[in-house]
């Protein structure tokens, strides 16, 4: 069994998180917008939140990052990224199951957004019990998923 831990992110982790994002999400970003290195670095500089992001370690090795927002009505999984060398080992599943347990204990839903082109992640989230709630963003490029029971009728598109 892999020992999975989280540690706080510091400002020194910025470049690691950028390179991780490039490795884990680069192909998906390229498929939608194309990868512009400076555009992505600027986006990262605005998004990097060391007081909220956490580094995921597996058996003491840095393998990814996690960003979770605890909102009044739900737990929002803002970002989970695992380096491709560490995907498919159950690390993400274990972390998400922990968040699902926490949400149930608090009487809340777990909610997240996933890029429409990231079918592997969508499949994982469905296996773990999340459902598509809506599609949003320019050209519906994002899918909002939640443990909230699906509503009858067509999926709302905003």
TrEMBL record:
InterPro entries: Acyl_CoA_acyltransferase, Bact_Acetyltransf, GNAT_dom. It comes from the Bacteria. Residues 4-150 form the N-acetyltransferase domain. The keyword Acyltransferase applies. Keywords: Acyltransferase, Transferase. It holds the Pfam family Acetyltransf_1. This is Ribosomal protein S18 acetylase RimI-like enzyme. The lineage of its organism: Bacteria, Bacillati, Actinomycetota, Actinomycetes, Kitasatosporales.
């Amino acid at each position: 069994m892999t020992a999975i831990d989280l540690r706080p992110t510091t400002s020194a982790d910025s470049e690691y998180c950028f390179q991780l994002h490039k490795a884990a999400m680069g192909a998906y970003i390229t498929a939608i917008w194309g990868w512009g290195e400076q555009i992505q670095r600027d986006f990262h500089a605005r998004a990097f939140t060391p007081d909220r992001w956490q580094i995921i370690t597996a058996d003491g090795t840095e393998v990814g990052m996690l960003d979770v927002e605890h909102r009044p009505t739900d737990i929002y999984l803002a970002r989970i990224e695992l380096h491709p060398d560490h995907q498919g080992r159950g690390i993400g599943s274990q972390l998400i199951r922990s968040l699902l347990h926490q949400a149930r204990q608090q009487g809340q839903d777990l909610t997240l957004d996933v890029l429409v082109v990231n079918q592997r992640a969508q499949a994982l989230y469905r296996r773990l019990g999340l459902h598509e709630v809506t599609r949003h963003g320019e050209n519906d490029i994002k899918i909002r998923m939640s443990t909230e029971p699906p509503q009858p009728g067509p999926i709302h598109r905003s």
